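Q: Hi! First time doing this. I have a protein sequence and I read that you can turn it into a structure. Is that right? Here it is:
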Amino acid sequence: YMMQALSYNLFACSNARYVENDNMGAWYIFESEYGLLSIGSTKTGSMLCFDDFYRPLGQGTTYGDAFLIWAQTDMESCAGDISRPWFYGMCIQGDPTLKLARFQPPLNYCVFEPGDVNGDGSVIGGDITYGVQYFRGVGDPPPDSCWDNVDSTWVYVAADANGSCGFLGSDITYLVRYFRGEHNSLQYCPHFTLPE
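A: Yes, that's right. Below is the predicted 3D structure, encoded as structure tokens:
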């Protein structure tokens, strides 16, 4: 059975020993489509005094900041005389800048400018030249490619000037006509959200 959680706080000794191949902390975040972050110990130990971690997390801080607050508050004293040997070795694997979903702005992994074939941040005639060179086999592919969940394929989304969800010669023709004033706007694949 595959766990379907985005973050894990591992209460298991040595489960996050990141210097070892196949450590469980890494398995939780890299071996599934769900995991983004795991917290655990690289040796005997685990987190205790959970309120000092979960309270700031529940108030909108990042996982990294909540972990830091917990560490500064509890690593030296929470478990009495065994605090330091129990807590030292705690670590985060994954992205510590994440927040709980209700505080996290929508993640936009696909950032692109429609018509910016060469990815330089401008839509100009050079984008046509770049695209033509690519199709002639003497230039590099467009740099902005994004995964299309609908068609299960990569799309050169910025180069898709006509919105067909692919990069073809017709996109170059569309760009030429756009620069001539024959089209009012550049299109983009409707499977993606246009970045703001």
